[in-house]
Amino acid sequence: MLRTTLVFLLLNLAHAVKFSNGGHHVQNVLNSHASTPDEFFNTDPFFYNDALSDHFSKNVLSQPKKWNQRFYYQDQFWGGDGYPVFLYIGGEGPQGPASEKLFMWQLAQEHKALMVSLEHRFYGESYPTDDMSAENLAYLTSEQALADLARFIEYISSLGVASSHTELGKSTPPLKVKASAADSKWVSFGGSYPGNLATWLKLKYPSSVEGTVGSSAPLQADYNFYRYAEVVGSALKYDLIGGSEECYDVVEKAMAQLHDLVTTTVPYGSSENLPTSLKPCTPMTSELDLYAYESNIFGNFQGTVQYNMQMSGAATVGDLCGVLTDEKAESPLGALDAMVTKYFASDTDTCIASSWDEMIGELQNEAFDGSAAMRQWIWQSCNEFGYFQTTEGDNHPFTSLTSCSLKIAGKEMCEQAYGIEGYTGPQKSGDGSKYASTEMYGSRSVLGANITMPNGNMDPWHSLGVVNATGEFYETVELTESESVVFIDGTAHCRDMYAPEAFAASGWNDTGAVQWAHAVIGENVAAYLKD
C-alpha cells in the first residue's frame, strides 16, 4: 500500500493514510536534515521535571500536576555569562537538538549563543498525561504550550554555576551549567506551527525573549483552507521552479478523468480501465473511503510543493511537471499514471490507500508511543486552527476531487476521531464573531516588537501568514517599526530555516532570494541582541 508520511502543516510522498491537514510535519523534515550524533555536540536529551500540566488551573485546593518535558541544552558555542540564548521551539512532532543544517546554528556560532530546544507537550516523549483521551487532550492548547515556554525560559535563566542542588535537580539527568544565563538576551526561532508559537511568545510574554523569528507561520485560523490548493496550483504554473501552464492544465484534466473513472463504478474505483498505479488498496464503499483515496492523490502534489527542493531524494515540482508534460503520454490520466509510477510507487507498494476506517483508526489511538503525532495535531486543528485542506473553491486544478470537502475533511474527522458531536469548526470567541485563536492572538494583525516573519511564495501556508505583498492571496497588514516581513521568491515551507549548505549535496544551492532573506534575518537578530 502506497503511503504518505505525515507534512503539517506530509512525505515519503507516496500514497497513504493521508490526513487533509498538511503533508509532513515540518519538524520531521527538519530532523531529516539533522546530522548524525557524532557530528555535533550535546545531543543527549534532558527532561524538565518541574513542568506544569495546567498553567491556568482555577482549583485553589490543589497544585497542578508536574510532568517531564524533554529538552536539549547545547552550549558548545556559548560565550558564557551575558551571551545570548537561542530557543529552538518544538512543534507537532518529536523534537530533536539543533544541528549545523539550521541557519540558527550558524547564527549561534556568530553570536556565541547557547542553544536550547524544548519539545511541545503531548509530542515526542513529552507526556503531561497518561494517555491521549479526549479528556486529557483538553490540556493540549497553544496557550498551554506558550506558558510551557515562558516557564522553561525562567528555569534556564535561573541557573548558574553556584545553583542549588534543588534547582539543578529540576532536570533529569541533573543539568550541569558552565555559566549563568540570568543576564542573557533570548531570541526564539520556530517554523510552521512553531513559527506561530515563536511569534505569539513575543506577543503574550514580551519580556521573555528579546526578539523572535517565526518562519512560515500560518497565523490566521482558517476552517476551510482551500487556499492551500490554490497555492499548489500556482506552484505548478511557476516556471522558476519547473512548473508551466501546460503542467497545470494536465493536472486539472487528469483529476477530472480520474474522478469520473473512479466514481462511475460500484464499488468506487473498480473499473478495469483504472491504471494499476492508481487502483485503490481496498474497496471503496462510501464517500468517506473515496475521501481517503482522493486526499492521497491530492497529497502527492501537496507534499511535493510544500517541500519543493528540501527533501533529498524526493520529487520536485520540476520532476513532476517533466513527466506530466511528456509527449509520450496518451492522455492526462496516462500522464498521472506515469508520474505516480515513477515517483511514488515501488515494487511492493502498488495501490492508493483508500480506507476511511484505517485513517480514522490512527486518529482514535489514545496511546503515546514516542512518534505518533496525528491524533494530537488534528485535535489542535479541530479545536483551535482549522487548517483543513479542502478542494473547494474553483481557482486550482483539484476541483474535481469533490470528496475532499469541508464536510469530510473537517466535520466528519473531528466528530469521529474525538466524539465531538455537532462539530462546526474551531472554538469561537466569547461573542461567537470569530475564532478564539484570532481573538487571543490577533490573526495576521501582529503588533509587537522585534518580530521577523519570513515566508516563501511557493509555500501553500504563506496564504495564512504575513507577507505584505500585492497579489491574489495577500493582504497588507499594519506593522510596528521593529517588525519585519521577509517574503522569499521561489521558495517553499521554512526554507529560510536551513543553513546555506544544507542542500548542497542535492545540488540545490541557495538562490539570490534565499541569500537576501538570510542577510535580513541575520541583521535583525543582531539588532535584537544589541545593548
TrEMBL record:
<dbReference type="GO" id="GO:0070008">
    <property type="term" value="F:serine-type exopeptidase activity"/>
</dbReference>
<dbReference type="InterPro" id="IPR008758">
    <property type="entry name" value="Peptidase_S28"/>
</dbReference>
<feature type="signal peptide">
    <location>
        <begin position="1"/>
        <end position="16"/>
    </location>
</feature>
<dbReference type="InterPro" id="IPR029058">
    <property type="entry name" value="AB_hydrolase_fold"/>
</dbReference>
<dbReference type="Pfam" id="PF05577">
    <property type="entry name" value="Peptidase_S28"/>
</dbReference>
<keyword id="KW-0325">Glycoprotein</keyword>
<dbReference type="GO" id="GO:0006508">
    <property type="term" value="P:proteolysis"/>
</dbReference>
<dbReference type="GO" id="GO:0008239">
    <property type="term" value="F:dipeptidyl-peptidase activity"/>
</dbReference>
<keyword id="KW-0378">Hydrolase</keyword>
<keyword id="KW-0645">Protease</keyword>
<keyword id="KW-0732">Signal</keyword>
<comment type="similarity">
    <text>Belongs to the peptidase S28 family.</text>
</comment>
<dbReference type="InterPro" id="IPR042269">
    <property type="entry name" value="Ser_carbopepase_S28_SKS"/>
</dbReference>
<protein>
    <submittedName>
        <fullName>Uncharacterized protein</fullName>
    </submittedName>
</protein>
